[in-house]
Every structure is written in C-alpha cells, then in structure tokens.
Design a protein that fits this description.
Length: 469
C-alpha cells in the first residue's frame, strides 16, 4: 500500500483499490494497544533504522528501507523494531516529491550566487519524505493588562515635556497550533524557517498517512518549549496591543500580560528532507521543504566566480552614475576605497554573528536539552538546558574574522588622504591597492561563510553516544 498525496487516499499498487485513511484503519502487524494518557494515543510497532554515526532514528511502517541517514549522509544504518508512541494528530503531505524538488530548484534559481553543483541529480535524488515530531500548544489570555504610556505634550524653553499615563485594558486572545519540533537533531533554525498551517489539513493520527514515508523519533521532553511558547504569545500580544489605533500615539513601556497553556499535544508534520556533504566531506548541507505549504530552507553557499562577475557588472553602472554626478578626483577614489572597507567590515560582522548562533545552536532549546549533563530528572534537565542556552548567548563569537587585515587594507588610502601628495598617481595606486586587498579578503570571508553555512556533522552524543568514538 502507498499513501497517494494527490488523492489523499491509501492505494494498492497492484489492483488500484483505494480507501480513505480517515475511515479505515489498516492495522500494522504486531501493533499493540493500551489505554491512552493525556498526551498519548497508544503505540505502534514499526521498523527503526538507527544511524551508527550520529544516532539519528527513522521509523517506517512498511517494507521500505533507508539507504542513508538524512542528518549525516552516512550509509551505516542498523535495523531494529520499535514500539513508537503515537502522536495525537498528523498533517498529511500535500506536496508530492516532484513538487518539492521543483520548489528546491526555484529556491536555487532565486539565489544568484548558488553553485551549479547543487542542482545535480545526485542531490535531487536524496529528498525523502519524513514526518517530524512536534509539540503543539493552545495558549489563551483572558485578563486585564497594565502599562505605562508616554506622549509628547509641549516644549518649554530647553525642556521637552511628556505626559505619562497609566494604561489598563482587557485582553481576549486565543492561540491555537503554536508548534515546536521535538527532535534534537532537527535544528530549530530549520524547523522555524518552514512554518506549518496547523488549522488547514490536520487529521487525527493513524499510521496509514505514514505509509511510503518515514518518521523521525522524538528524543526531547515535551515540556522543554513551554517557556518559549508562552514568551512567543506574550510578545505577540504586546506587539498587537501597541499597534492598536488608540495606543499608537503613545510610547508603551512596562506592559504586563500573563498567558497560560490551555492544551498541548504531539503531532507529526510533513517535511521533505535532503542532506549532502561539502567538498571536503567534513560538514553537511541541509535542504528542507514543507510538505504542506511548500516553504523551503536550504543551506546555500556562495559561488565566488558568480559573485565576482556580479560585482564587476555592478561596478559599471555605479561608475557611470558617479562620473555623471561627481567629478572623480583622485581624492574621491581613495574615499570610495575607505567606504568599501567600512561596508566590508559591517557585512563581516553581521555574518559572524549568524555563524556563531548557527554553529553553536545557541537558540536551539531541544539541542541544549538533549546535551545537558548532570541532571537526574526531567525538571532539572529543562532548567539546566535553559541555563546552557542563556550561557551560550553570552559567549563571544568563537569564529574569528578578518578585522585586522581589513583595517590594514585601508592604510594606503588613509595615508594618502592624510598627506595629500601632489601627484595624482599616488592616489590611484593607493586606492587600487586598498580595493585589491579588500577583494582578496572578501574572497577569504566568502570561503569562511561557505564553510559555516554548512553544519558540523552530527555527533553521537546527540542521542546518547560518545562524541570521540
């Protein structure tokens, strides 16, 4: 049997018989039944493939076999049986694999500097349909709020007078379907980049929807994202209140709003997942497509040759505009080199910040929870995991940039601007040296960016192994 995405039915490939998975339950051989708890709809027996390199686990309920690990691209997989805890709901795949591949191609086509090798068939064949485990929250707020509001009144001499008001109001807000992934291997920056529409297409879980696809196992506690869910809702409520017509003239501070979790449950959400190693084979690129909405997230490096061609082509109209509006004196050429240096420093600083957050998975609560040591129970693990995440956010960027070389590249132009020699040749030579050095250093920056746009190979300690094995 196969789950046919277009018709949303389970279909026999031999006789073309079809049945609606909502109405009929095709029980897996050997499935067990037991009384469901508050967040549990029973267990189902399936086939589990465990990666011996990174410890990731994929589950299937038919005779399909995994040929490689989605998280580390390894082919060393161990097959076993598993009694998997069933989720309560499932969002079935709405996009076919061919549609997902086309969406991936569209993503690359929109990326001007994407390398051509990312479009090769060997990568396209790696896409696999996987149901990712999520914790789904229903959060509500039905209470009064308090805040302070400031509004400009008038000016008196050297003083600017503001009126300060005490603002109160009533909040009635319901948030249904706020979700966070429950797999430590599945990075939060990836899962949050392809949000799902929970209200559109969710179904009560039965494993018929999973036939022909795989499911990742949940390996973090379903309470780990409680604080994140409440903070997300509270921040959104504060933002919405601040934008209301009545409060728009005020500068709002100190708003206090309390929310609480009304209900939560586990679910399976559909993702097309592909991974492929970089040229050195020491890091991994991820490509994920939302199997419901088609949203995509891909680790795309920069092809320096394409980048260089784009820069040279862009330089032509810029030069023409400057020549038209300005007289390009030797002095302006050196100033242009300094401006290029400042832009390079800013771009590198922003890139290093993103590199540090991604490399250390600073904002990945599930990863921090799973890798928390010295905790004997669930509550301690959650507390220790949150402490680890907060501590990581305070750590300076471990990845070093090229700040000093960039500064040195600007010295020739700075010296010329300081001493103002009479010969124009000195200006042009200094600016040319600075711009050439900046371009060389930009090549190094792009190389570093390309290294860290890929992710470290998953380590065994993510699911209980030894990092050094």
């Amino acid at each position: 049997m196969d789950f046919e995405i277009k018709g949303q039915v389970v279909k026999c490939p031999y006789c073309d018989s079809e049945f609606d998975p909502k109405k009929e339950i095709n029980k897996v051989k050997g499935a067990t039944e037991r009384t469901a708890t508050e967040y549990d709809t029973g267990t189902t027996k399936g086939k589990c493939f465990t990666c011996s390199q990174c410890g990731a686990q994929l589950v299937t309920f038919d005779d399909t076999a995994v040929t490689f690990c989605n998280y580390c691209d390894s082919q060393a997989l161990i097959e076993s049986e598993i009694n998997m805890l069933n989720p309560k709901v499932v969002i079935p795949f709405k996009k076919t694999k061919d549609e997902a591949i086309n969406l991936y191609k569209e993503k690359l086509n929109k990326s001007m500097f994407a390398p051509n090798e990312f479009k090769k068939d060997i990568i396209l064949k790696k896409f696999r349909g996987i149901y990712m485990p999520y914790e789904i929250y229903d959060i509500e707020t039905h209470e009064n709020f308090e805040a302070k509001g400031e509004r400009y009144s008038h000016r008196s001499g050297d003083y600017v007078i503001y009126d300060v008001y005490s603002i109160t109001g009533k909040v009635d807000a319901d948030y249904d379907g706020l979700s966070f992934d429950l797999s430590s291997s599945y990075s939060d920056d990836v899962s949050q980049a392809i949000p799902f529409n929970y209200k559109d297409g969710k179904e009560e879980f039965n494993h018929n929807y999973l036939i022909g696809n795989y499911a990742d196992t949940s390996d973090v506690d379903n309470d780990i994202y409680n604080d994140d869910a409440l903070k997300t809702v509270t921040d959104d409520i504060v933002s919405e209140i601040s934008r209301t017509k009545e409060l728009r003239p005020y500068s709002i501070t100190g708003m206090k709003v309390s929310s609480h979790i009304n209900d939560k449950r586990t679910g399976f959400f559909p993702v097309y997942f592909a991974s492929f190693k970089n040229k050195k084979g020491d890091r991994i690129h991820y490509a994920v497509i939302n199997g419901q909405t088609g949203k995509s997230a891909v680790d795309i490096p920069v092809d320096f040759k394409k980048y260089l061609v784009a820069v040279l082509l862009l330089a032509i109209p810029i030069f023409a505009v400057m020549q038209y509006f300005l007289t390009l004196t030797p002095n302006y050429v050196c100033i242009a080199a300094i401006i290029a240096l400042v832009i390079a420093v800013i771009l590198q600083s922003i890139d290093l910040k993103h590199i540090n957050e991604k490399e250390n998975r600073i904002n990945d609560e599930g990863y921090n929870y799973k890798n928390t040591a010295n905790a004997d129970n669930k509550e301690e693990m959650i507390i220790e995991g949150n402490k680890k995440a907060k501590k990581a956010k305070k750590v300076k960027n471990k990845t070093k940039g090229y700040g000093l070389p960039l500064f040195l590249s600007g010295i020739p132009s700075l010296i010329i601007l300081m001493f103002h020699p009479f010969q124009d040749e000195f200006y042009y030579i200094a600016a040319s040296i600075s711009l050439a050095l900046i371009l060389i250093i930009f090549r190094l920056i792009i190389n570093k960016h390309n290294t860290f746009i890929a992710r470290p190979l998953p380590q065994l300690n993510k699911r209980g192994g030894d990092k050094d094995e």
